[in-house]
Each structure stands twice: as C-alpha cells, then as structure tokens.
C-alpha cells in the first residue's frame, strides 16, 4: 500500500490570534505551530494501512515555509518513510496549494492520497477535493471510516444527520475526519529512526492566487457576561428574557 | 446585467433546508450587483415540480437535472452541470451551501473552472462592482474579507447564517439534460442514527452538554429540555464528552467538531474552552448553565445562570412548558 499524506503547519488551536501589521495576515509572534490536527488522522491511517498490508510506503508532503520541516520530522517519527517540503515564496489560496500538490503527486506512484478534512488556520476545506479534481480521482471527504479490499474502497463520510457511504476504486483521495482512528505519538525509537529518513526540500513557484484577503480583523467581542441569577429560582427570569427576545 | 448562479441542495428528491438559505445569499449578492439569480439542482424524476418553490426566495430561472441516480449526492454530475451552465452564461458568482455536499462540490467545481473559492462565508458584498465576501478564519478568531481576481467568484455560505428571505421572482423551471458519463464513485447508502435527529449545524436551537453532565445516563435531562423546546431544537456536546464516548462525534461543537450558528445555544456543564467557543460564538443568543461562577463560558454568554444543572435544567424545561401552555 503506497500512500501520500499532505500535511500543513498551522498555529496551535490554543493560540491567541492577532492581526499583523499588514492588516491581511496574522502576527506570528508568540504563536506555537503544530501539525494540523486533522492531518494526524490522515497520517495515522496511512501508517496503519501500510502495517496491515505488511509492506508499502508512506510519503508526506507539505507546502510551506522552511519551518514546516519540523512537522515533517514529526511525521517521520510517527512512521512515515520519506518527506518532501515544497517551498515557495509568495502567497497562496486553496487552488494554488492544490495545484502545487497535484503537480508533485502527478508523476508518483500511489494507491491513496490522504488529507486532513480541513486546515485549522484558513479553515478552507478545499484542498483535498481540488487535488482529486485536478488528478481526475475519486474523492471522499470528511471520512470517519475507511475499508479497503484489494482495489476497492468503502468510505463513510459525515453528512448532516448521519453517514453517507461512498464506494470507489483506488487510487483515490480521502479527507480524514476525527473519529477515523486514534493517532499515535512518536516513540523514542521512532524519533531516532526519523533522523535517518529522507527529508528533502524542493523549491517551487506558485501560480497566481485567485482569492485574496483584502482585510483581516479580530471579531467584534461578544457583549455577553450577564448573570441572570443563581439556582432554579432564577429560571423564570431567564425564560422571561428569552421570551422577550422571541427566542422560545 | 449581473447574474448569480446558486446550487440548491436536495436529498431523496426533497429540497434541503439550506436550499432556501443559499438562494437567499445569492439574492443578497444579486441585489447589490443589480442582477438576478439562477438556480441549478439535481434530483430524481419529479424534482422539477418541487424546485419551483425556490421562486419565492428570489430564483429567476431554475435549471433542474433529473435522473434516478440523483436521489443521493452525485458529485461528478453536479460539477459537470455547473460547468455547462457557467459556459453558457457570464455569471459573476456561483453560490453553494457550506454543507456536507457543498463542501465537496464547491472545491471540485473551483478546480474544474479554475476559479477562486471562498468557503464558510458569513456575508456577501460588492466592492467596485465585484463580489467580495467575509469569512471566519482560525476558528473564528479572525474575520477575513476576500476579493476575487476572476469571475465567477465561487462562494460557499455557512448554514444558518442567511435566514431565508421572501423575495418573489419568476421561478421558471427548465429541465436540462446532462450527459451521463460513467462515475468513478457512487453513494450506496445513508446511515442515520436511531433517531432522525436534526443535525447540530442545522438546528435553530442547540442544547449542548459537557463534562458537568457526569454520566451519559443523565442525558435524559437534556433530552427533556429538547422536547420542551420543540422540533427545531437538537442536542450538541463538548469534546470532553465525545472523547469519553458518552455522545457521538456528530454532535461535537467546536474547532474539531461542528461550527454552529443557531438562534439560541445552551451550554450546560461546559466550561467554555477556547476550542469549544470557536464552534458556537456566532450563535445569536448564548445561555450558559454552570455551577462555577468563574467558568469562562460566562464571558461569552448573553445570559448566565449559576447553579447545579441537575436542579436548573428540569426547572427550565418545566417553566418553558408552563409559559407555552399559558400562551
Ligand atoms: C486540538 C484541540 C481541539 C479541540 N476541539 C474541541 C472541540 O471541537 N470542541 C470542544 O468542546 N472542545 C475541544 N477541545 C477540548 C477543550 O480544550 C476542552 O477540553 C473541552 O471543551 C472541555 O469540555 P467540557 O467543558 O465539557 O469539560 P470541562 O472543561 O471539564 O468543564 C465541565 C464544566 O461543568 C461544570 N459543572 C460540573 N458539574 C456541574 C453541575 N452539576 N452543574 C453545573 N455545572 C457543572 C464545571 O464547573 C465545568 O465548568 C479541543 C482541544 C484541543 C487540544
Ligand atoms: N500547505 C499545505 N501543504 C500540504 N498540505 C496541505 C496544505 N494546505 C492544505 N493541505 C491539506 O489539505 C487539507 C485541507 O486543507 P484546507 O483545504 O486548507 O482546509 C489539510 O488538512 C492538509 O491535509
């Protein structure tokens, strides 16, 4: 089983986000960066599929700055076999990233391309389906269950009120949702082994982005914070206020 | 004259509730651009009759593709249908719902058309005669305004944000043949839970329980409140209780769960961690019930009630029933 897993370096979910001086990006000062949490599910699935098959190859790709080597190294320590950073100056939208990944993946041999369902920085939820379209592959996004038998795959994807069951043949694109598996932590042995695995950097150039952020703002604070009262005796007052606002 | 194209979502031959919201969002944009709204949708034979209803929300022309296989989401056919329509007419924008279907369809279409896409949009506008959109990023910790360098601009709109607006228009229905091609993937079924519960991202009222609920058995307390509030209420959960296996992941609200924008959100026994707030801070009204007066959830709640949820929630359900019965 040969898998390619696309991973992104993003601010930690706890990070406080401040708008930077340019007014269109964030101020990176004091922000801790991690592997996008959904990408951990994608990577774990790839490693498991390789382990189950008894042989195979897991390659991780990331488009981003030099610092993304850190998450690629983590991926190698978790059990990926090889890593490649696609580095480019300039800004990118979802389609630019998808093109960069599709171009790199195009010449490779693979059974599955795995993604997180969403990057928690841009919250785009675009790249997996775009790569599938660009490579002409089937695509199941937001997958919580994946079964592969030979060249045939059955995926359960989360939809409103339940799961949709999608069937397709490999090679294919899968976007991982929480629930697909429980990602492992890198072991000490894994961390040592990672040092000997290939981590390459390739300079690329981006295509023109078609979506541009023209302003980035902090959200207006919620004017909340009113305590209606304490205990069950405050319930009638709460209900009165909700009725006044025609909410119930 | 400007034209906006809207994808109306269907399932099992019925329009989904987000369809009228998406048409409304398209109408908001068309109104600002000085133009009209066209709609496209797929469904089984007979779909065309149901589709006419979208005229009420501002659909001028409605293009319908009918085929038995369109009872469930047909990704590849939908992309081709959109591509055909965009090839016929110079659309300024194509609007999708940011629902499960739309989150799949919009990026596929963007790649096919080689156009930019803004997802999870919460408002649309016009700058210099061209569409712009605002969308949350970093789980709502920042709001971006985005512009598009080429038209049509592709936009998917967050469910429950664009409330359906009556905007009567022609609503003329045209059945369109789309070439059938072998598909690389097929939806073979839908599994729903025991209860046909309203999805947490679509409900108008969400009642979420957290670790303060103590035990999965205690959810009967929240279920009773859902029942008192009626058909447009549903259950949500914090990650702590989902991770504990008390509730299904489909109910999780937050950064790694669902983002919800109901009219009314109850956080019951939830502390208000930053990742939880990311999923519900855009609710119109937030009510927090927690016995710890210092819990961070109170800083975002419109109405806070300090107390033991096992006393407060049953009293709340009873009071709601009482005032509703009293008219
Ligand atoms: C990468 C990442 C992603 C995450 N994503 C999410 C996410 O999507 N959604 C999410 O919710 N969390 C998420 N979290 C977890 C989050 O940080 C918190 O751990 C979680 O939200 C806590 O859940 P809780 O409020 O139910 O539990 P707790 O924080 O334990 O709070 C329980 C609350 O119940 C109150 N309580 C106890 N007993 C009673 C009683 N009898 N009556 C009234 N009140 C009572 C307590 O005062 C307390 O405030 C994420 C974390 C990480 C690291
Ligand atoms: N810069 C990137 N490099 C590698 N993979 C990426 C990058 N951006 C997005 N992805 C992948 O695409 C998924 C969805 O991202 P997005 O569409 O940006 O929300 C992520 O979970 C990653 O798997």
Explain this structure to me?
The complex is a heterodimer of chains A (about 250) and B (about 325). Chain A is of the alpha/beta class. Chain A has helices spanning about 35-55, 70-80, 95-105, 125-135, 190-195, 235-245, and strands spanning about 1-5, 10, 35, 55-65, 80-85, 110-115, 140-150, 150-160, 160-170, 170-175, 200-205, 210-215, 225-230. Chain A contains six helices and 13 strands. In chain A, the strands form two sheets. A nine-stranded mixed sheet of chain A has the order 9-8-7-10-6-1-4-5-11, with helices on both faces. In chain A, strand 7 (about 140-150) and strand 8 form a beta hairpin. In chain B, the strands form four sheets. A seven-stranded parallel sheet of chain B has the order 7-11-6-1-4-5-12, with helices on both faces. In chain B, helix 5 (about 220-230) links the parallel strand 14 and strand 15 (about 235). With about 325 residues, chain B is of the alpha/beta class. Chains A and B meet through helix 3, helix 4, strand 7, strand 8 and strand 9 of A and helix 4, strand 7, strand 9, strand 10 and strand 13 of B. Adenosine monophosphate binds near residues 39, 63, 116, 118 and 128 of chain A.
Task: Give short descriptive properties of this protein.
heterodimer, A: 248 residues, alpha/beta, two-stranded antiparallel sheet, B: 327 residues, Rossmann fold, 2 domains, five-stranded parallel sheet, 18 strands, elongated, binds adenosine monophosphate
């Amino acid at each position: 089983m040969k898998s390619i897993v696309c991973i992104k370096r993003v601010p930690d979910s706890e990070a406080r986000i401040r708008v930077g001086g340019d007014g269109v990006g964030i101020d990176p000062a004091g922000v801790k960066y991690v592997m996008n949490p959904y990408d951990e599910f994608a990577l774990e699935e790839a490693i498991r599929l390789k382990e189950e098959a008894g042989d195979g190859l897991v390659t991780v790709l990331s488009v981003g700055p030099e610092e993304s080597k850190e998450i690629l190294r983590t991926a190698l320590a978790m059990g990926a076999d090889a890593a490649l950073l696609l580095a480019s100056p300039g800004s990118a939208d979802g389609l630019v990233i998808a093109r960069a990944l599709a171009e790199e993946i195009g010449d490779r041999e693979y059974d599955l391309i795995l993604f997180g369902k969403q990057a928690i920085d841009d919250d785009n939820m675009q790249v997996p389906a775009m790569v599938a379209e660009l490579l002409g592959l089937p695509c199941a996004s937001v997958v919580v269950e994946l079964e592969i038998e030979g060249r045939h795959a059955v995926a359960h994807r989360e939809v409103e009120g339940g799961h949709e069951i999608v069937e397709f043949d490999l090679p294919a694109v899968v976007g991982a949702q929480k629930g697909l598996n429980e990602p492992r932590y890198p072991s000490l042995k894994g961390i040592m082994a990672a040092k000997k695995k290939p981590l390459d950097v390739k300079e690329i150039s981006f295509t023109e982005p078609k979506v541009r952020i023209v302003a980035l703002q902090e959200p207006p604070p919620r004017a909340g914070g009113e305590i209606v009262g304490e205990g069950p005796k405050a319930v009638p007052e709460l209900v009165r206020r909700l009725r006044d606002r025609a909410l119930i | 004259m400007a034209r906006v194209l809207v994808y109306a979502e269907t399932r099992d031959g019925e329009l989904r509730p987000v369809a009228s919201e998406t048409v409304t969002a398209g109408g908001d944009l068309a109104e600002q651009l000085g133009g009209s709204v066209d709609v496209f949708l797929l469904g089984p034979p007979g779909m065309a009759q149901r589709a006419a209803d979208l005229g009420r929300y501002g659909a001028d022309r409605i293009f319908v593709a009918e085929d038995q296989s369109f009872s469930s989401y047909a990704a590849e056919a939908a992309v081709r249908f959109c591509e055909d329509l965009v090839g016929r007419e110079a659309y300024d924008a194509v609007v999708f719902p940011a629902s499960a279907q739309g989150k799949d369809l919009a990026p596929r279409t963007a790649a096919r058309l080689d156009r930019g896409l803004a997802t999870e949009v919460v408002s649309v506008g016009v700058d210099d005669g061209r569409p712009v959109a605002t969308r949350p990023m970093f789980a709502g910790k920042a709001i971006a305004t985005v512009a598009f360098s080429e038209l049509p601009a592709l936009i998917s709109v967050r469910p429950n944000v664009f409330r359906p607006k009556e905007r009567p228009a022609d609503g003329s229905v045209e059945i369109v043949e789309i070439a059938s091609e072998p598909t690389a993937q097929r939806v073979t079924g839908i599994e729903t839970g025991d209860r046909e519960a309203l999805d947490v991202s679509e409900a108008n009222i969400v009642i979420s329980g957290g670790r303060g609920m103590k035990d999965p058995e205690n959810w009967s307390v929240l279920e009773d409140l859902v029942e008192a509030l009626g058909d447009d209420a549903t259950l949500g959960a914090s990650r702590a209780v989902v991770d504990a296996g008390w509730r299904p992941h489909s109910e999780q609200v937050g950064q790694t769960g669902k983002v919800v924008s109901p009219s009314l959100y109850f956080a019951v026994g939830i502390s208000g961690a930053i990742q939880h707030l990311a999923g519900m801070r855009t609710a119109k009204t937030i009510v927090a019930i927690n016995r710890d007066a210092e819990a961070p959830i109170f800083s975002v709640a419109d109405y806070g009630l300090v107390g033991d949820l096992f006393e407060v929630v049953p009293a709340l359900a009873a009071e709601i029933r009482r005032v509703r019965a009293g008219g």
